[in-house]
């Protein structure tokens, strides 16, 4: 196998992607913002350390990128800013997401990389549309003009569009593919995990008196990693875009799965709906809830039929993903039930 650069090596999706790549025989370079984290990340990745090299590089500056991509034939650009809560200004997300993607592309092209796989999101597909729209494909783009498109969907949309525009103008000779995951759940390797997992964590903790009428497509982190690897190796996928998603579930559906499958360990999980007006009131005091209040009641099904048809990709049952998420949070002491 060739050598691949996986950016954002301390991140949730990147960790599982690195694990699969090394298991399949790849040599891997990865970036972290500071090499002080190398030992910690190696510990929870638990892979053949001889096949994994770390480099310090940041989305917002050039130092380290040339060294990180040197000798690589492929890049999986997974690093992207994901806030734990609502940012003070949308540019806190938009600028590093866009500029980081363009920076990684420039250095990859200069190093002679053959294929560049970028992690985007269904957030770049399914936001800002009329409420009557319930189904989305790779042909769709989020509407940046809509007031319902908040900072995170904006950042993913702008970053992916900028990357595709750069490729059209500058990327000749390098194949480009995006993976667009829905909400990423699954077992956690450590305390660096997808913000989507906060939803399961808060349900297990009984952190709210009821369940908001919010929902999202769900995909397992192990399946997202597998789709990245397929995109790195499959023939004839240049310029493609692949949604990674299983079924759309409301939070109340997740709550019932946890109650049914975990028994006493899920005793704090609420199973009654929180009225929309109460969610909007709470959103005035909880910024991360306030920014998604416009999504109350919405159904957004992002089909992964294209990934199934072209790449033979198949996500695991969503119940397995939800239970594995919860059990790993409990087993690692992240949630005290």
Automatic annotation (TrEMBL):
Record organism: Sphingomonas changbaiensis NBRC 104936
Keyword presence, Oxidoreductase: yes
Family: Belongs to the NAD(P)-dependent epimerase/dehydratase family. Dihydroflavonol-4-reductase subfamily.
Record key words, sorted: Oxidoreductase
Molecular function terms from GO: oxidoreductase activity, acting on the CH-OH group of donors, NAD or NADP as acceptor
Pfam families xrefs: Epimerase (PF01370)
Domain NAD-dependent epimerase/dehydratase as annotated: residue spans: 4-236
UniProt cross-references to InterPro entries, sorted A to Z: Epimerase_deHydtase (IPR001509), NAD(P)-bd_dom_sf (IPR036291), NAD(P)_dehydrat-like (IPR050425)
Bilayer-crossing regions: none
Top-level taxon in the UniProt lineage: Bacteria
Protein name (Swiss-Prot/TrEMBL): NAD-dependent epimerase/dehydratase domain-containing protein
